[in-house]
User: Fold this.
Amino acid sequence: MFQNVWKIILVLSLLTGLGLIISGGKEPLPSKAVGSISTESDPQTTPTATPGITVLPKKQWKKKQLTGSGALLKGRTLLISIYLNTEKCKWTKKAKKQEKRKLKAATAYLTKQAKKYDQQVEFITAVEEPEDLTYLCEIKKNPYQDFKAVLYMMDRMEKYVENKINTTLLRERYQTNNIGFLVHVNGTGLSQTMVHYMDYKASQFYEVSVLYHRYDGKLETAATMAHEILHLYGARDLYEANGKDGISRKLVKYVKKHYSRDLMFCNLVEKKIYRIQKYKVTPISAYFVGWLDTVKEIKKFPKMKPRYPGCFGTVAK
Assistant:
C-alpha cells in the first residue's frame, strides 16, 4: 500500500488532470537524485526505413493520435532514453551499462510476451547507443520529494520533448508514429509513468516513464522497467482500484485469484536483475494494450472496457 502522502498525490493528480501512474507495486521511497548539468545530442543516424507509414506533421500527429505518443504496442515502436545527469548522482559508464542491460531485457521480454498473442512488436531503443535516441537533460529540483516536485519534473520533461527532440524527423527516419519516452534517474525512488488520457486530447500528449536506477538502495530490476513501459501503451495497475481507469475492487480481487502473476499486479521482486521469470502479461493486460480484441472478463466487469485499446480514461459506454 502507498504511504498516506502518496495517496494524497494520487488524489491531487486526478484533480489537476495529471495522468500520473505511481506504480511498480512497491512502497514509495524518497529519491536521492538532485540537480544536473546537461547537453543534447543531434540526430545523425539513418536506419533502414519500413515503407507504408504516413508521418503526419507534429500538430496533426498530436491531434489525431488519440491514444498519446506511445499509441498501440504493435509493430515498430521507438523508446527514447533521456538521462538525468545530476550533481550528486552522475551517470557512470558502469551504471549506464546496467541501465541499458535492463532495457534490453525488458523489451526482449515484452516482445516475447506479445508473440503469445500473435502480435509482432519491434522495439527500437538506445541500447546500442544510436545518437538520435539518447539525450541528456538537467533538472534542479528533487524529482521525487513531494507533489510539487513531481509536477515540476513532469512539466520539464514534456517541455523538453516538445522543444529539444525532433519527433517528426524521428518518425520519418524510423517509419513509426509510436514513441515512448524513458527518463532515467541515477538515484533511489519509485518508478512512475505519465500517461495520456483521451480526455486531454492534444495536451499531455507525450507519454513518459521515469525509471529510477535503484529502489530502496538496491539495483532496480528489468521487471519494473517492463511494468512501466507497458503503462505507456495502456496497461493499468491491477493491484488497486481506480475508477477512472475502470479497475474496480472486485476486479482487483479477481485478478489476485486468477492472474496473480500478471506483470501489472505483482509486487515486482526478482532475484535476478536482468531476467523476468516470475511474471506474465496475462489476457487482462494484453487486452488493455490492444493485443486482444476482447476478454471474457468484460461480461463480469463491463466498466473495464475502454473506448479504444491502448489508452487511459474515457470508459466505453
Notes: The two ends are 31 Å apart (CA to CA). The longest strand covers residues 75-84.
